[in-house]
Amino acid sequence: MSRFRTLYIDMDSFFASIEQQLDSTLRNKPVAIAALENDFGCVVAASYEAKAYGVKTGTRVRDAKILCPGIHFRPSRHRLYSKFNKYISYLLDDIAELESIRSIDEFQIYLGRDYSSLSRALLLSTRIKSMIYEQVGKEISLSIGIAANPLLAKIASKINKPDGLQWLCEENMPSRIKDLYLEDLPGISKGIKRRLLGAKVYSVEDLYYMDPRHARLVWRSVEGERFVRSLRGENIPINKSNRGSYGNSKVLSPENRSPRNAYLVGRWLIEKSAERLRRYNYCASRLDIFLRLDNFGSCQDSVTFLYSQDTLFFLKQFKILWTRLSPVIESQRIKFVGVRLSGLINIQDRSGEFLTNLYPGEKNISERLSSSVDNLNLRYGKRIINFGIHREHPGFFERG
Question: Hey, which family's this protein in (predicted)?
Fold first, then answer.
């Protein structure tokens, strides 16, 4: 009989179910969470009652209203959902070995020797479901997948949502997943699917029996071989990747599409990106900005510099790039703004500056000031100090 290593938890319509738990008038009714509170926004989460009408992530608000006339919209409250995530992770870690918080609504538990049998894993799953029901809320449900590795466990968690409990093992593979489409599998993008079809791999069952060496060629990476071996139940460890950049982007609401307002939103994105850069002790040597215009045109520019993690310095570079692009965008409506800090090294690896008496791995005065601002904002739980005038554009990840 197969031994199991991973229990994967996928919360069911997490954001919408939290809103239904907190507001009893929403229960058993179609609910959608919107990034922007107008018809130009998109749905970022939907309850199962709304999904029954065809409303899903990415559906435009105006289309959702047509598909489901009685739908109830709520603004996204990411900080609230994060609090639920932390509470659930605390509860899980108390009764099991929480191996990883994979996302805001997905958790991975390690099934050690005591829970590696199917009967024990099922017992633990039942206990987890009861605990969430009793201690988090009756409207908060979850689906669980059990398998020998994270990939199979994640696939199993999505087979019978909502409130599912499935397992994948040598005894029921690949027949248990043969009815899934290639794109149903995590990690199969549109590009990878096109390559698989070109290699005459038309189904999940074909992929299961694919030669791992052939998969490496199709993926053009060792990840293809790793994927197929994981699909067959091998316990392939997850590679740790090195961070290549920090950035933020925003599809602008109509009132922010003038060049002036778009510029101020861009300053806000720079502040947020620089803050994340410092949080993980990186310095950047390149800044890129990306703009998409209402007339479907686009433009971008970049600048390179000596390694820095200073917000004020990045804002000056952003202004230089924006000024360069001004002749193109001055009479345009700007639909999208994106910024990216790249060319990263850890600050400990940065060389010193002889003329300014800056030692290797040491922050300069401006960088220490930026870090102090980070600490104050973190202490008070909100941005009480900004680096000049900017224009916040709260959306899915910024709502409180």
Answer: Belongs to the DNA polymerase type-Y family.
For residues 329-337, give the mean pLDDT.
Answer: 89
Residue 79 has pLDDT above 70, yes or no: yes
Enter the tokens of residue 65.
Answer: 């209203």
How many whole angstroms separate alpha carbon 225 and alpha carbon 45?
33
List pLDDT tens digits, range 28-56.
Answer: 999 999 876 667 678 889 999 999 999 98
The SS3 call for residue 162 is coil
382: DSSP letter: S
Classify 386 as helix, strand or coil: coil
Angle formed at CA 107 by CA 378 and CA 278, multiple of 5 degrees? 30
Rounded-to-integer distance, Cα 263 and Cα 315, Å: 11
The residue segments making up the domain with residue 41 are: 1-166
The stretches of 100-253 forming alpha helices (DSSP H) are 118-135, 150-157, 190-198, 204-208, 212-219, 222-231
Give the list of residues 6+ apart from residue 292 with CB closer than 8 angstroms, or none.
Answer: 298, 334, 335, 336
Quick check: 55 and 68 in contact, CB under 8 A?
Answer: yes
Which residue has tokens 């994967």? 8
Q: Are 282 and 363 spatial neighbours (Cβ–Cβ below 8 Å)?
A: no
CA distance 152 to 127: 21
Q: Is the pLDDT of residue 332 over 60?
A: yes
Q: Say how many CA atoms lie within 13 Å of 295 toward its Cβ.
A: 7
pLDDT of residue 99: 87
* Residues 9 and 158 both lie in one domain: yes
Quote the crossing angle between the two packed helices 259-279 and 311-329, to the nearest 10°.
Answer: 150
Number of domains in the chain: 3
Residues 4-22 pLDDT 10s: 999 999 999 999 999 999 9
SS3 276: helix
Of 106, 137, 166, which residue sits at a domain end?
166
The Cα–Cα gap between 1 and 25 comes to 47
Check which CATH number belongs to the domain holding 98 and give it.
3.30.70.270
